[in-house]
User: Fold these one by one.
Assistant:
Number 1:
Amino acid sequence: MFCLSELEDTVRVPPSDLNLPLEVAIKKALQKLFLDKVLSIGLCVSIYGIKSIEGGFVLPGDGAATYKVVFRIVVFRPFVGEVIAAKFKESDSNGLRLTLGFFEDVYVPAPLIPTPNRCEPDPYNRNQMRWVWKYGDDEFIIDDSCQIKFRVENISYPPVPTERAEDAKPFAPMVVTGTIDDDGLGPVSWWEACAPISDAED
Amino acid sequence: MRSFKDNERSLARLGFTQDVDVCRVKANAGALTNFEVLNLINSKGASKDTTRVIAAIARSEYKVCDYLNETVASTQTLESVTTFSDKCKDFKLAKAEILNIINIRPSVDFKALLDPIIEEPKERGIDTDGILELVQDLLPPLPVVETQMEKDQDETNNGEES
């Protein structure tokens, strides 16, 4: 789910931080720049460590010192085929939306929900739709009662939109598409109850 | 004196361009298991600070910490993870599959969970039962829900006292 990336960047340490030890000041500036932001390599989660610092020049007209820093950060970038446990967030007629707490844009589109299934208006929540999987005689509901395991199918980085409708969803710079249509995937409670059946399938 | 790079960077901060102009030395310097990330955040002080204000950890890092604490990564130790990945080498598994198994921890009763992780086990001659036994021996499962709820109650009590 996570990997390390080594980056090199020019970091500007504001004058207010110049009394701190150099590494601390640079780490603070790096955190402000990178943490919780999506780069082309993924969502930056944490600064792992600084490898080298060079420079320290003060450009004319500026009170801040500029350093060239090589550092490593931890990025959230799941690989295709990875199985991740997530929580149910909401669902609509297009599919499910799952959340990982720190990352909320995991979508399971309708074709990747095990068939045969049906979508019905949620009796508990007027605005939402509920997905139900029909297997044999049993019906399994997808809701927020337990963790949902999904397998990553695709990660996309949609480009920044230039115009948006007023009530559109907030822009998601990184979208993970997952599938729950396989053995062992989907809500955990499905497999806890059915362990003997899945062995018989194999 | 503002260079082209500075201008691009400020545009990126305003949200107009997607790519910050950062020189990438190595996009992938190594994959990390959930346990290693949890260890990293905890070593920065997240575990000791229950108020979440004192330690120099960002709110987003706390969210990652919360997520990881609910997975099996919270019960693993460095030795168990390294021993497990060493022993996995005998089983002819791909690195990504070992990573997946460490993060998900399929249990012996949950054999179905190993199917989406390992591709074509029979064709590759992989001993899935042996792997599950190794998981059972080396990687501890999540504590039962009741214990977790008691732990949460203890934490809130401590918070009130302090």
Number 2:
Amino acid sequence: MIELVQIEKHFQGQAVVHPLSLSIKEGEFLTLLGPSGCGKTTILRMIAGFEQPTDGQVWLAGQNVTDVPASKRDLNLVFQHYALFPHMTVEDNIAFGLKMKKMPRAQIKERVDEAAQMTQLSALRDRFPHQLSGGQQQRVAIARAIANKPKVLLLDEPLGALDLQLRKNLQSELKHLQRTLGITFVYVTHDQEEAMMMSDRIVIMNNGKVEQIGTPREIYARPQTLFAATFVGENNIFSSPEGLIAVRPEKMVAQREPGAKKTGVIEDIQYLGSVHKLLVQLDGEPMKVTVALDISDERPWQIGEAVGVNWNDKDEVMIEP
Amino acid sequence: MRNSRFLLPPVLLWLSLFLVIPMLIVVGISFLSRDTLGRVVFEFNLEGYRTFFDPLYLGIYWDTLVLSLLTTVICLLVSYPLAYYIANASPRVQTWGLVLITIPFWINFLIRTYAWVLLLRTQGVVNSALLWLGWIDEPIQMLYTYGAVLMGMVYNFIPFMVLPIYVALEQMDKRLLDAASDLGASRWKAFLHVTLPQSKSGIMTGAVLVYVSTSGMFVVTDILGGAKSTMISNIIQTQFLGARNWPFGAALSVIFVVTSLILILLFNRAMQARHQRVGEGRA
């Protein structure tokens, strides 16, 4: 559906996005994940047509759209701060794109009805944006985009401004919407949990470079780089003669018996309900490791206690620095 | 905004001392008579209002309305592109643009207007230049024409229109234009459907400022229009200072204020008809 061919972006001689090729499949939920300033929003804006790549091409549905202006690309963007038109009602906001396409009035009404219903806005159509809550404004932004039935929906941190509970609800709603509509979603976020929960595939970015592309499962179980290993979920990193090794805290066991791979002293104990963690300062090494204890493990541990830390060799993941 | 409560009494005092009480005095005088020496006497009289309906004064009033509206429209047409350019320029250009627009305010209003006399009169700069260039054979009568008055008005009040429009455009969220473009709007359509409505508050403020200032102006007509063009404010000035017919002058003032208020109200109503509940538009 979308092909990015060696696109790169420089601002004032600085590379914001290093050459990147990416193929996004039809109906896929793809997430660009990374810390702020990693270039993910720039990539999204290049797909949307608001930024011109310094080099490379953008293909959309088999067409080279690199030089096509944003207004002529068959995709829509849900903006980070919604960018709703403050002087228009919810209904007029949703209808804006259709009016620009000079769609017949009856058809516009039909589309607006449909989009409003899908986003549960039917009761709020006559309101103005400033009369809506953050979550409702977010819904209007989505309705305004999907009313156009674009081939691709781009979402730039759409839930970033909302509180946690609302985010969680809207995450499931968005995922559900994407399945119902069957259109391609390209989603930008810095929230790794959000990315894991919603995506078919994740592109992890750092400093304008792609660190790893894969399904959430691949990225969690087989991180390829140090950044990917530590940005998504928690990880313990060891250096070995062959290179860096990552072991997830939940793959580690704490033991009092001798024969463990590493030994250390318990520095802190964190009880988080579903997990129970030990923070262990290793002997003779500057690093600390986190051991997530099985919830059925009821053995009492104490801060300051000596402990052995062990894991299976098969749970080691070799990563690039 | 808890502070505003403490500001209320002084504001009310100020308004009543300098606006309400003088207005009431004017309204009061408009219903009184005058004696042969031009002194106001306490005797109810509607003569001032009756005189207004003389075709002579009605005509002048009509001319005043037309000139004020014309000035407002020309100011808007000139100022909008200017304000738009400044609001979208680099910060450096913005600063300079605003300074250049406000510079005339540093010079006394009378001097500014007399400067136009030097430019426009028969032996003035413009005529001399045109003669020297050989574009004309004899000086053109530019001073003391309707055009000179109109130009003087437009010149004096352009900043009143530019500044509010500039503020409205400058405050607009530029991401809205990205959003419009994303939804398929061309640049022109985005301007029409997003930028223009978003700058409406600036246009309204500017239009009211220019209209009110123009219609109450008598200096420009005096200096650039000579004896030929008269506005209602010239008549009011004459009634108070020259003819010493205060009741008539007061009646004209009352009619002038009331009609201006009605016009402004109608204008506001028309501008807000479609979006009554928007308020400021930026909540």
